Predict the structure of Methyltransferase type 11 domain-containing protein.
Amino acid sequence: MSINPPPFNLAAVEAVTPHIVANVERILQTHRYAADDRDHVARLMDWLAPAEGASIVDIGCGIGEVARLAHEARPDLRFTLVNISPVQLSYCPTGDGFDLVQCDAHAMPLPPESFDYALMNSALSNMDAGPALKEAARVLKPGGALLVTDFLRLYGDNSQFERDLGARALTVRAFRDLAYEAGFMAKTLQFGGDDAHFRALMPEHADHILAGVTYGAWRLTKIDNDMMNGARREIGKHMGDVALRALIASPDNVAAQKLQNDLCSATLMHIGTGPETRVCLSCGAHTNEEGALPCGH
Ligand SMILES: C[S@@+](CC[C@H](N)C(=O)[O-])C[C@H]1O[C@@H](n2cnc3c(N)ncnc32)[C@H](O)[C@@H]1O
């Protein structure tokens, strides 16, 4: 698989890390969800919601501050800290509850299905998102969850952003598509966040750098076989039909029109939106009181 990450400048990041850590920040994220680091990490962990004794891989872990604060609050959790930067790893917590792995997140020397949870905080944007999400999915157990917080592109393109930050901001649609292709179901948690920390670090450049981007948080769940089989069983019940749950409230909407074009003889079933009705996509007839389609298509 060819990997095409943005031009992440490891030497430059390593050169500024000691200064940033000593004078400014220990959490290397542009956007915050709370006024102080402890509450910010508490919010991230609320979103991840790890079970008792869980294993968590923090991919692109910075100096491990998120893991350190999370472990203080939840000593039952075990963290594996992954970073391409040996300098940043040298600042990470060690000892009981922490394993450090220096590697590229696109190809981690970690066994498949070995973690309950994963974190990627402000890290995916430094990577080639598709392969990096697939790699995260590989090391997660089926049903495991990955918390992603990162830049999102609202408008404009990434050329300047890649040059300034060595990062790439995905659109919502691109992110969701890549997450799905990697085998995840995505739940959006929040758009936006407080970027005052980042603006204070780069007061002259922040407006320029942050133009056209916001920040997003998602909880991705690795789809497991039970989920897939459940979905297949549901679909199997409606062989020959197209089953849509709550997506289509009215047969006149755009999705229904599109289905009608693509699947001219399909039957559209309205499920979970009140009494079940069926609409023939060939002629638009609705089910009668006996629940049958009068048109016979
Ligand atoms: C903006 S920092 C975020 C750090 C950390 N997640 C935090 O919240 O403090 C991005 C991190 O990703 C790491 N990183 C970037 N590209 C990487 C790669 N290909 N493989 C592993 N780590 C990478 C960087 O060294 C850095 O630690």
Remarks:
- Residues 8, 13, 27-29, 60-62, 65-66, 82-85, 88, 104-106, 121-123, 126-127 surround S-adenosylmethionine (CB under 6 Å).
